[in-house]
Amino acid sequence: MSRLSVLEDLLGNLLKETQELVAALVLDLDGFIIAKSSIKGFDEEIITAITSILEQTINKIKQYTETTFGSGTLGTNEFQLFYIDLSKVTPALFVLVGDQYSNINQFIPYAYIVAEKISSILNNRVTSIQIPRLDNSGDLILHPEFDSNFRKKNISKIAIIGSESVGKSSLVDMYCRGEIEENYKPTIGISIVEKKLQISKSYRLMLYLLDLGGLKSFAKIRKFYYSYSNIILILFDFTKVETLNNVKGWIEESRQFIKDKSIPILLIGNKIDLIENRESIRSQAQDLATEYNFPFFETSALTGEGIDELFTFMISTLF
């Protein structure tokens, strides 16, 4: 199946879950449509008018492609638009289109799940085009259909946070797939990965790993997903002491938005394969973990060292 077909199937799935949206588009930075999906009656003339409205926005994005991911809303007499700039990862723009009555803001956190999948597809990475369902209030439904052997209590959501480039996505990849992507691409807001575990013949677990983008510009998206989490993993990079110094900020952010204050938080020092003498940083990290009464683990997402121990402990804590 071609990338175009995969993208259009993904956008089609999005529109099925978001009844108030009338179209979803992926544009290149020249304003040409890469892929689109729309409801019946939403014709090419309307789409052309929308791309014209976005022209000025695209020109601004071209000037600042190396800085950060941008997003924004635009309104006309007939439509509301929300766009996510993907140009830090791939030269494209993802656009949601709602009519003048739709509450497009409620779909913004949801849109970032799709944006991450679009980025993966455009960068030739294997990704599922399935997206979580929404309930009537616009909240995510993060669970499969249950059978007698797979109950809701056997499901947990794990939020993985930390500064940019500390190895959050690589940790998830190594745990879930046994390998990591060679070419690093920062997560656009959020990536959700499923991990099914067969504990015994009649007992299964489902983990949803919520890999939350570490850029400051994604704070408004992260706060939405903290509320779904059953446990928080905070990562820092052993080779960059500033990422350890940032951990207190991540603790404060997570505690601000977690509704259940009893949710466990784990501190993870990653990239131990890249540093020979880590005693000083390890001591600082251990002191921090002791201060907050957090378990502390050391891992290498590249080699897999420490990952089984981390997730074994985490699963025993959750279930």
Automatic annotation (TrEMBL):
Pfam families: Ras. InterPro entries: P-loop_NTPase (IPR027417), Small_GTP-bd (IPR005225), Small_GTPase (IPR001806). Keywords: Nucleotide-binding. GO terms for molecular function: GTP binding; GTPase activity. CDD domains: Rab (cd00154). NCBIfam families: small_GTP. PANTHER family: PTHR47978. This is Uncharacterized protein. It comes from marine sediment metagenome.
